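Morning!

As promised:
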Amino acid sequence: MSLLQIVLRSLRQHLLSTVITAFSIALASGLLMSVWVVKDQARENFTGVDSGFDGVFGARGSKLQLVLNSIFHLEASPGNLTWEQYELIAKDRRVATAVPIAVGDNYRGYRLVGVTANLFEVEYRDGKKYGVRDGYLFNPERKQAVVGSFAAERLRLRVGSTFHPYHGLIFDENKQHAETYVVSGIMEPSNTPADRVIWIPIAGLQNMEGHKAETATDVSAVLVKLRGSSSGMMMNQEFNLQGNVMTFAWPIADTMSKLFNKIAPVEMVLRAVALLVALVAAGSILASIYNSMNERRREIAILRALGARRSTIFAVVVLEASGIAALGAAAGFAVYFFIMSVAAWLIRQETGIVLSPLELEPVMLWAPLTMLVLGALAGVVPAAKAYRTDVAQNLNPIS
Amino acid sequence: MLLNIDNLRKSYGTPDGAVQAVVDVPSFSLESGQQTALCGTSGTGKTTFLNLIAGILQPDDGCIELDGCLISQANEAARDRLRARTIGYIFQTFNLLQGYSCIENVLLGMRFGPGADRRRAGELLERVGLGQRLDHLPRQLSTGQQQRVAVARALANRPKLVLADEPTGNLDPASAAESLGLIRETCRENGAALLLVSHDREVLGQFDNVRDLAEINRAAAWPSAREGLP
């Protein structure tokens, strides 16, 4: 019988405690991986998404709110710009493309965003433009809508479906508009927040029944693509530092990075909690094996009487602890996929950001290894107890 | 000479702080292949004596030489090695590992010696009449059958000396006689010397060479040593 067989047999003999302890390790390992992956991928995605634009113009106010509202379709708009201001921006020689958007309505919680058709000519990622999978792009003159793939799936909208928009960004069934919109197309999935949006002609949103007539030409924000990076610096100086009419959020990634930097302490707390859970799980290995040592003293004494060395007994116990940790770490991937599936679904539902649970991340290597090392270390204490077992005293009876 | 003991002493501390001698053997020896029974009642230090010979306990004083090796002077690892390779130990309570089958118990005995040999383990169990129960767990066997597994395990590494501590103490008279015969026979077949301790007159009567532990162990003659100290 090899040492490994002895270890496996011992684990089988204490099956219930092995399973329970391995489960606690699995939870810890899964949680550790999930926290790290959600944190890293969320940061990467939120700071990486710019929808193909360099900056956003909006009413004077918070840059973060402006970016969240116009790029991520979260939060309320900080205010409006006039159509004349949009035209001024669009005509600026430093601006290559300017896309005005207007927000303020929803359909069952999914935002309606009024936009001009040139949004669909912008590359939101290298070589990728928003495309229509089924149907065709809306006609700016008609009450037509192109629905993001995720929103279409959740709302069960198809080409030809009709719907009545609701006023406001939060769904309230008492605030239905009289207009009827027809779905002209369903967008290709882009794995960006655009998937959660119902895109309609900007004039449609501006002129929706019940909206104030005096703001009928206003826009919520203007997304811009610039000619050269120096343009951004110049415009930042002009609009943010010297001007006081508009806010220019540029570069978009920087604005989001600042958000993540602000919530860095929360991330640290989450990491610390995950690490503490890992330590507690390692402690459960220690407690479980240590508690079994009393009932196993005779078994250890028999092995010693058969010629097993103290070091062999020590190794058996440490390997046993490592075995439990290894089982737990392996099962931790199942826990990870479960947590990540739920987290990815929730994050996509709420923000449109798509996390990739299957993407390989460094934490998937170091978290299981950490659990293995912690497990082995946790085994040292009971192993030391086993090491010190008095053979003669535990080989009963003595006469 | 296979086993030679000279001025062997072992004492334990008592709860009131005194030191109590349990083994005090001026001289004892055993030839290769010799079968000797030691007669002793409870508390005469017979288990301690066997544990000293097996290297499980370290003597306070004196010398134990087994097969040319000074056990009493060897370090623990060397004693472990010697115990695994040279000594077979049969316990009164058999000390089988309950989570292991018959053959695994025998293989475990081999694991720490020259190495596991499944064929030999099977042959030994066949020899003791358990050829059909190789994969049974100890709890699935009768007491007598468990004793036979212990015998097979003790002989697994072709030991030069088999120590048997009250091996029939837990058996009924018929099983005890059968088991004793088996132990003696298999030791003879394997060329192993046998040192058996018992207080059962039936058992002792089977041996030509019977020694009274009270005569060998001076500490056993002291009344206090008979009153429960190991």
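The interface with chain A takes residues 40, 42-44, 46-48, 51, 54, 56-57, 76-77, 80-81, 83-85, 89, 91-93, 95-97, 99-100, 104, 107-109, 111-113, 116, 153, 165-166, 230 of chain B (CB under 8 Å).

Hope this helps with the figure draft.
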